[in-house]
Structures are given as C-alpha cells and as structure tokens.
Amino acid sequence: MKCITDIKALRELLKQWRRAGESIAFVPTMGNLHAGHLQLVNRAKAQADRVVVSIFVNPTQFGVGEDFSLYPRTEQADQEKLQAIFVDAVFMPSTEEMYPVNELTKVSVSQVSENHCGAARPGHFDGVATVVCKLFNIVQPDKAFFGEKDFQQLTVINAMVADLNLPVEIISVPTVRESDGLAMSSRNGYLTPEQREQAPQLYQSLCTAKVLIRDKKTAYIDIEKQQKKFLEEQGFRPDYFSICRRYDLQTAGQDDSEIVILVAAKIGKTRLIDNIQVDVEH
Ligand code: PAF
User: Fold this and answer.
1) Distance 58 CA to ligand 1 centre (A)
2) I want to staple 49 with a disulfide (CB 3.0 to 4.6 A). Which of 22, 58, 161, 240 is the partner?
3) Quick check: pTM over 0.85?
4) Where are the domains of the chain?
5) Residue whose CA lies nearest to ligand 1 atom number 8
6) What is the 126 CA–ligand 1 centroid distance (Å)?
7) Nearest residue (CA) to ligand 1, atom 2
8) Could you say which of 3.30.1300.10, 3.90.1150.10, 3.60.15.10, 3.40.630.40 is the CATH number of the domain covering 186-276?
9) Rounded CA gap, 144 and 53, in Å?
C-alpha cells in the first residue's frame, strides 16, 4: 500500500494506473477508521481495479467551538487496517497541502444543505462540499463511496455531482451498526460507559417512528414530537427529529412514499446523528 502525502505524487501514481486501463474507486474519510469505513472500502474493492482512501480531518467543515482539535487522529492504526484489506493507496495530505493559500472559491449547495444539520452547523456543508470537490479533482475517481449514516451529506454530494457535471459515480453504502443498533461513528469514542449504554435509544426512536409511519394512524408532526420527548426522557438533548422526503430532505407529507427520518441529538457533549429510510405504500 502506498502512503502518499502530496498531490503531485498521488497524481503521478494515478496516471500510471489509468494508463494501464485500471478503474479507480475512492473512499474519502477523516480517519479513525471503524467497521463502517471498512465496509465502504470493501464495496469499493469489489467495484474497481484500484482503491484510494483519503484520511484528512478537514478544518473547514468544523464550526467554532466544535470538536476539530479533539477529533481522534489515529493514522498509524488506520494505515494498518487499510493495509490489512489491501487498499492500493492512502492519501494523507497536510492542511497546507489541501489549503496552501487563502482560497477564494468555495462550493455551496443550496436547499438540501440548509435545514437539519445545515441549520445546526452553519457552514458545515460548504466545508464538506468544497473539500470533497477538491478531493474529486485530485483523485478523479470513476466511483466514490459514502455511508448512508451521513444521509444529508450524501444528498449534498449527489446534488453537487449532478449540478457540476462531475464525472464520478456516487455509490451509497448502508449504515453499519453495533449489535445494539448504535450506528458506527468515530464520535462514539467520546461517550462515557453510561452514555454508551443510552446511545442505542437514538436508533430505537427511529425504529418506533418507522412503525408508526407504516401504521398510518399518527400525524407525522405528532410522531416527531413524541420521539423528541422520548429522547429527552432517555437523557438526550434532541437537535431535530424530522420526517422528510428522501429526494430533497423537505418535510414529508402523509402521501409521500419515499421517506427518510433524520435525527440529531446530544448526549453529554457528544452530538450523534442517525437516520432510517421508510417506504410507504399508498
Ligand atoms: O464523512 C466524512 O468523513 C467527511 O465529511 C468527508 C466526506 C471525508 C469530507 O471531509
């Protein structure tokens, strides 16, 4: 496995692979790799000749007072995990390599990035879209793999790729969960043992809402209120619990068929997000 920190060297390697007619899959990450990331890599390996993983804790997607400086950096362990599953190259640029000048350009996707996490974390999705666009331009992959755990992020990236005609196919991969239902996340490592015990209730609230939606007896606004209350009783501070249309993340009506329920809640200092998809037959 090649470990590369500069853009020029990565481009040189990619050029050789392309000349040999090999297809390239890309998995962007911020490191601290868990089974969810490894699942993305395994899907990528099955669909391309070469797999590139990036590890870059992108400062521009963290707001003031968020966990940028605390975010777990575990490069050595990450490299060992990637080596063990035969990744071809890991790209680990410095901040200076990615942002050498005070750049004047940013990618901003309107509408789908404005509500939910976008409202709670102003500027977050501009940071994500900009760094992903830069990484796509550096790697120029045939396919790129993203987890459904960050459903709004996935929606933002799909919109960016469509709107800017970026020549990459986005492949979404279902969320990987712990055996008690908690979605895998690098931020789970912040939880105290007691909070870790409570954390699966977030997924529980989504499962309950899914049953109620399918049951068609309760107004969506009441389901949202009930589940927020449930989360508060379990010791969370819910940020939002939203029943949305899957294609544009706007509030779903009772007659919509393709739904995603998005939730974000704090437990102690840790902000967790999760979602579940629901298909409703009419
Ligand atoms: O999902 C993440 O880990 C990050 O938001 C991403 C896509 C690597 C961009 O920094």
Assistant:
1) 8
2) 22
3) yes
4) 2-173, 186-276
5) 29
6) 12
7) 29
8) 3.30.1300.10
9) 10
